[in-house]
Amino acid sequence: MTTIHHRTCHICEANCGVLVEMEGRKVVSIKGNPDHVLSRGHICPKATAIADLQDDPDRLRQPVKRGADGWQVISWDAAFREIAQKVVALQREGARAAFYRGNPGAHDYALSTQSGYLQRAVGARGTFSASTLDQIPHHYAQYQMYGHVSLAAVPDIDRTQMIVIVGGNPMASNGSLWTVPDFRNRVKEMQARGGRLVVIDPRRTETAKVADEWHPVLPGTDTALLVGILQCVLAEGGSLRPGLAELVDDSWAQVKPAVDGFDLDELADHCGIEAATIRSLATELASGKPTSIYGRMGVSVCEFGALNQWLIQLINLATGNLDREGGTMFPQPLLDLVGQVGKGNIRTVETARGTLPSIMGEIPTIAFADELTRDDDQRIRTLFVIAGNPVLSAPDGERTEEALQKLDLMVSMDMHITETSTHAHYILPPCGPLEKDHYTFFFGPLAVRNFGAYSPATLPMEEGAKADWEIAADLAQSILAEKGKPAPNFDTPRERLDAMLKASPAGMSLAEVEAQPNGVDLGPLQPCLKDRLLTSDRLLHAAPPELLEELHRFAARLGEVPEGSLSLIGRRHVRSNNSWLHNSRRLVKGPDRCTLMINPDDAQARGLEDGDMAQVASRVGEVEIVVEITDDMMPGVVSIPHGWGHHRAGVSWRTAADHAGVSINDLTDPERYDRLTGNAVLNGTPVTVEPAREAVAPE
Ligand SMILES: Nc1nc2c(c(=O)[nH]1)N[C@H]1C(S)=C(S)[C@@H](COP(=O)(O)OP(=O)(O)OC[C@H]3O[C@@H](n4cnc5c(=O)[nH]c(N)nc54)[C@H](O)[C@@H]3O)O[C@H]1N2
Ligand SMILES: Nc1nc2c(c(=O)[nH]1)N[C@H]1C(S)=C(S)[C@@H](COP(=O)(O)OP(=O)(O)OC[C@H]3O[C@@H](n4cnc5c(=O)[nH]c(N)nc54)[C@H](O)[C@@H]3O)O[C@H]1N2
Ligand code: SF4
Ligand SMILES: [Mo]
Fold first, then answer.
1. Which residues surround ligand 4, an ion (CB under 5 A)?
2. What's the pLDDT tens digit per position in 131-187?
3. CATH code given to domain 564-691
4. Probe ligand 1: pick from 580, 583, 625, max atoms within 8 Å of CB?
5. Which regions of the chain are under pLDDT 50?
6. In the prediction, which pLDDT does 490 show?
7. What is the pLDDT of residue 488?
8. CA–CA separation, 126 vs 140, rounded Å?
9. Which atom in ligand 2 lies closest to the alpha carbon of residue 574?
10. Is 667 close to ligand 1, i.e. is its CB under 6 Å away?
11. Which ranges in the chain are annotated with CATH 3.40.228.10?
């Protein structure tokens, strides 16, 4: 007898509805849920891999402790007691403690609502996280313009007539900061009603291949394109459409003069996109039909990330498409985070590298290794890594790896012994993914319909297992007990969720939401900016001084041409997810995906043929990797996917280790970052590429 369970897939931001068919504890099938209000039956190959994660023989099922003879299994109680004693002893010595939070935590509402208790108990100041390797520039621009780090506008794909995607690849990523499951069919529907998709990317990506137009752009130069588009849009006048004009502050008057100073031909030369193309993109975006421009990783993890995100908002504003049906719109989800979490903040933090920006309390991860190795009393000695793998995901992996070995206490919450957790003293593994419940916590606020979905755990927990949130809560209690402090009253995640749902404008209870297993649909996105702005004067701040100043800084960079080297960018594949799905056989099978993509001319100039081994070197490191020649790469740019490099000693994921690949982040340079936000620059790394040296046979 099999049973069918409704769930939300927790792996990526698309939050697809899936139907999991179970026979006892065995997964029989995982299929798309055709009745799901948002994903409409869509899934990608990663959904079926949830079964591989659940049944992974390499997954840790009990806590382990590193001893002289390797890893030993230890009981939860003993692990909590020992960790609590060490945390408190180190606290008494005045040792600095820190957290690194990885991406999967954002897909676990329960952990997200509970881990603050643990951080406070540990006394960790600030947080390193995957966010400063990713989307912090978006939060910065949103805070500056709309008054809240989480007030995001997404393309209203179901009603728009044009989307320009700059530096995003939703065909592989399934959308990011834009919860848009079934992207392919939504694009087809747009094209069928006469709409057009335009992609700006150094690589002819999977998304570029389904687009109506693709324009290659030199990595890190999109600012020139965006300034050019804005200049052309504003050339016709620059007055805002009625309805929007009343919401925008006086600084709007400064935007046109600021972009008018640029020479369009010079901008075109800088980014490698012709002036005529820039003009025609501007004309089409401003044609009066509903259009949208959206930019993601490619324009976030670069030197002018915050500036780019601001310019993108300004283009949507200037064309009249912000907060308009078919333009870019602000979701009003079932659980409205904006009304219930702080607005965020922009501060600075002192680090061994000097003063760095600190957005939302983050310490930029580019400074992670420095803070672990600094030689004063501010050195981090206690570290908690929660669902993260910075050795593979942060710049200069080798240095991170060395730095982790200096810690007095490192605790990883992870279900694998990874390139990172292998350096921990204790690893605390969560239960299997099907043993957790799920709510679309951070992604309802980014979805293309007003929506939310809750799914209960599919399976009861295995005996002795704990969910991430329970591990965090139990450990926090143990630390407080060790300090002799009373245990606070913890709300359970479900209690928190119920309260947050009820406090949202839709006002539903968790029980009511749970009764709708296909998700709750509150309809298409609605204009709402007037009621959502959270700046002090409730106006949209068009031209914050820091961003105008950054525009001047960019102006000084125009015309700079990188010399001699190639420019390295990353890539994502639909069968991978950052560093942690390579232990699923069905996802890694087939041809090697961790290759150096290179344009035929660049390969020929270096005497490289398809399948050769190349040596790729940057300021910080070098790797040897197999060459894949393809004219999908624009000349001068090469690509290596991130998340690989599982050859490192001590890892427990055997299938991943059999498909090790190399880590692009052994080449990325932590010295490069966005000055306004501290976000890492992960693309456009200058590299040299040459045939790999012949291995010298030992005598
Ligand atoms: N060069 C380059 N580097 C990049 C990127 C890039 O595009 N190019 N992308 C960046 C981006 S956008 C991101 S988000 C980061 C990701 O960076 P990280 O978040 O640091 O890394 P992940 O690969 O997501 O690793 C997640 C870890 O969590 C574990 N894990 C998975 N699920 C769970 C769970 O439910 N509970 C617990 N406790 N552990 C779990 C996995 O085993 C894995 O070890 O990488 C960044 N790094
Ligand atoms: N299958 C899969 N899905 C994922 C993930 C995954 O690892 N695998 N990771 C998830 C996570 S954590 C995130 S943050 C999202 C990311 O989601 P996306 O941002 O959509 O994904 P990326 O593939 O990083 O897309 C960035 C694009 O920018 C291009 N690019 C690089 N440099 C530049 C540049 O200077 N300018 C321009 N215009 N383009 C540039 C790259 O070629 C790439 O196509 O994906 C999520 N979904
Ligand atoms: S697109 Fe993302 S959410 Fe949907 S099935 Fe694939 S991994 Fe899961
Ligand atoms: Mo990410």
1. 134
2. 999 999 999 999 999 999 999 999 999 999 999 999 999 999 999 999 999 999 999
3. 2.40.40.20
4. 580
5. none
6. 81
7. 80
8. 17
9. 1
10. no
11. 136-333+535-553
Question: Which pLDDT does position 328 carry in this prediction?
Answer: 98
Query: What distance in Å separates the CA atoms of residue 178 and residue 156, rounded to the nearest whole number?
Result: 10
Say if ligand 2 is within 6 A of residue 684 CB: yes
Task: Quickly name the fold that domain 136-333+535-553 has.
Answer: Dimethylsulfoxide Reductase; domain 2 (3.40.228)
pTM of the model as a whole: 0.98
Which ligand gives the minimal distance to the CA of 107?
1
SS3 439: strand
- Candidates 2.20.25.90, 1.10.3290.10, 2.60.40.3090, 3.50.50.60; correct CATH number of 3-55? 2.20.25.90
- Spatial distance between the Cα atoms of 408 and 652, rounded to a whole number of angstroms: 23
Task: Give the model's pLDDT for residue 26.
Answer: 96
Q: Whose CA is nearest to atom 2 of ligand 3?
A: 12
Q: How far apart are CA 181 and CA 527, in angstroms?
A: 22
Q: Compute the distance between CA of residue 663 and CA of residue 646 in angstroms, rounded to an integer.
A: 8
Name the residue with tokens 């001047």.
552
Ligand 1 midpoint to CA 579 (Å): 6
Q: Is the CB of 13 under 6 A from ligand 1?
A: no
CA 108 to ligand 1: nearest atom: 35
Quick one: pLDDT at residue 698? 52
The confidence score (pLDDT) of residue 691 equals: 98
Q: Name the residue of 157, 176, 209, 300 to mutate for ligand 2: max ligand atoms within 8 A of Cβ.
A: 176
Question: 276: which 2 tokens?
Answer: 């005529």
